[in-house]
Amino acid sequence: MSTQTFMVVATIREDTDLAALTSLIPDEMASVERLREQGKLGSVHVAFARRVIFIEAFGADEADVTATVRSLPMGGFFDLDVYPTAPGGTAPGGNAAGGNAAEAR
Fold this sequence. Notes:
alpha+beta, four-stranded antiparallel β-sheet, 4 helices, 4 strands, globular
């Protein structure tokens, strides 16, 4: 089965104890690094003020990627939205994304 790239939007739940969440940061960072070495995660961007984390993940399908993110120490604090990404910046149908607007008409 081939590996696909996904963008996971992890929203910190409203009822989360932020002290408990932040206490997990060292373990979370170590787990992210281990999963990067295994080729399961890429970049991770945190927008803490918005209670959102953007996670680049790699897996066979959405279930595989969801399981990877849920395996993180902080994984249980998030509501997840998982989006498959188009390879190489292509739009659906194989067209390059962001092309000439005149060509799209």
